[in-house]
Amino acid sequence: MSIISSLPDYIPSTIGHVFSPKVDRSVLSAYGTCDYLQTIFLDEGVSVEELRAKDYQLGGRPPSYPPKPEFCGVYLAPEQCSLFDIEEEHSPLSHPNEIEKSPSPPPHLNDLWYDDGSVVLKAGDDFFCVHGSILSQKSSVFATILLQSQTENTGTHEGCPMVALGDDAEELRQLLLTIYEISYFEDNAQYFVYLCAVLRLSTKYEMKRLRDLALQRLKRGVPTTLASFDDPGYQDDRATAQKHVLAVINLARETNCLELLPCAYYYCSRLPASTIFEGSGGVILALPDITACILGKEQLLDIQRQTTHPFLYTLPKSKFESFCKDCCEGNDRLLLQYLQRQDFRRPCTFEQFIHWEKIGACKSCASPHQSAHTKGRQEAWALLPGIFGLGSWEKIVA
């Protein structure tokens, strides 16, 4: 019996109140504790069954919350992380309670102050003297802003018209360097913070070509196809995306890049609940995203057990004996030893299993299960957006 099936179809706003739905305690005992249920907040008017990405759009970045929040008075202690050694290159952080700080592009000699510039952009305490004609050519939004500044006479700085922008100064610097230097994007696309800056500001200023470049690069780490997820050439990109998955989710919401969310939610569902609820490194998720990850995790575990990795939930005698009575009979001990090292609370739904010898299967015995494993992963990937309430891949992929 699924714990989710015991919940009501509609849950009203629980902001400021303890969320404690009436569920069968015998059901809850099988899942350990009901603390997770007691800590879910939902915005007013949000139905669990109707939670969709289109129903929730951030008007900017998520609000800041206290660094150590208590949800309904329940403090979520950090959980121990144990590796599920299905495939190392897809595994998340060794210590997922700590999201690593991403390195930034190195300092650049160009200070973005051109003596023949026609406009000064102000962001925070920084000033950039650049060419209005170049900005207007790259962005219709910039063209409109500069035209309005001339009409409204917004002031000057060192003899040039000045336009004050609400952008982060370093992010604006990265965007301007990319506009002025053709090679700057490829030289710095390996830096996660750079890609975030470019995607965020190219979306804001409607610079479609640059936005597409940044989005396609981010998709290496947060893929929309299973083939890309399995591509060994993107291993480093996937590792980087998993380290910064909370920021990826917030960025996807802010820039309306919904195609990034299914895989990002999958990465996030593998983190400890304390990290999902409390955030890490100053990055915290909005409540609908927390809800999507928590509810989707249950479905991922069911699919893993029934479709993608069923061979890990039965003993070799029932799996392999009909294929090979000589090599694999009596290898239950190997599977049990392997399973003792795993944490089945953390989804491994899309991780490729290749270590058949560790669970007592020779090559001939493993072959039919490998085929079923491959087919199961493909079927599960097709369902991934729907698991998190996002519809289908065709609906969300640009």
Following the backbone from N to C, one meets helices and strands in this order, namely HHEEHHEEHHHHHHHHHHHHHH
Beta-strand segment tally: 4
Give the amount of beta strand, in percent.
under 5%
Question: With helices defined by DSSP (H or I, 4 residues minimum), what is the helix count?
Answer: 18
Largest sheet: 4 strands, mixed
Assign the structural class, choosing from mainly alpha, mainly beta, alpha/beta, alpha+beta, or little secondary structure: mainly alpha
Cα distance spanning the termini:
37 Å
Shape: elongated
Low-confidence stretches: 1-99
* Mean pLDDT across residues: 76
Q: How are the strands of the biggest sheet laid out side by side?
A: 2-1-4-3
**Rg, Cα atoms, Å:** 25 Å
The proportion of residues forming helix, as a percent range, comes to 40-55%
Keywords:
398 residues, four-stranded mixed beta sheet, 18 helices, disordered N terminus, BTB/POZ_dom
Description:
- The protein is mostly helical.
- Among the domains are: 1-44, no CATH class; 306-386, no CATH class.
- Helices cover 44% and strands 5% of the residues.
- The chain has 18 helices and four strands.
- The chain has helices spanning 25-30, 35-38, 132-138, 140-152, 169-180, 184-188, 192-204, 208-218, 226-230, 235-243, 245-255, 261-269, 273-278, 287-308, 316-320, 332-340, 363-387, 393-396; strands spanning 119-123, 126-130, 156-157, 160-165.
- The chain has a four-stranded mixed sheet.
- The chain is elongated.
- The model is unreliable at 1-99 (pLDDT under 50).
